[in-house]
Design goal:
Distance between the termini: 34 Å
Order of helices and strands: EHHEHHEHHEEE
Length: about 150
């Protein structure tokens, strides 16, 4: 698929986190493949919220075993180039609207709003309803194949 006809896709925080979670190897491989495709194609998008959430999980989750230097390198080299949506009142307004329409938690609604504002057609996340369509954005759980692995 060429970049001119391909559409952007959004990666939720759990995709970045699973790249370092060796307790779920199939999810880890899936996440690494998805992030590699996102970076190499130029079509992957994250928001500033994803960077913040990833750093929060990475510094607090003992199972990830990442140093501050590793977190900074990963964030700067991989996630930051995909960061297309920063905080704004437009983002907040859209998130509040999505929250009232879907009953998703506010921070999940912010992720959906960011994906929509970035012009994405797909949101990859395991935290929301698989295949749900929210304002033209399709939510896809990329880990469904790996859902039955032991963790």
């Amino acid at each position: 698929m060429s970049t001119s006809t391909a559409t952007r896709f959004f990666l939720d925080t759990n995709i970045a986190v699973y790249c370092f979670d060796s307790s779920a190897p199939r999810k880890q491989n899936c996440a690494k493949d998805l992030l590699a495709h996102a970076a190499s194609s130029g079509l992957g998008v994250v928001s500033y919220q994803v960077l913040q959430e990833f750093c929060n999980v990475a510094v607090n989750a003992k199972r990830l075993s990442l140093s501050v230097e590793q977190i900074m390198a990963y964030t700067t080299q991989l996630l930051e180039p995909m960061n297309k949506v920063g905080p704004s009142t437009d983002l907040l307004a859209q998130a509040l609207h999505i929250r009232s329409e879907t009953s998703y938690a506010f921070y999940d609604s912010l992720i959906i709003a960011a994906a929509q504002l970035a012009g994405c057609s797909t949101l990859y996340s395991e935290d929301m309803q698989h295949q749900q369509l929210v304002g033209g954005l399709r939510i896809v759980n990329p880990f469904l194949d790996a859902a039955h692995e032991s963790t």
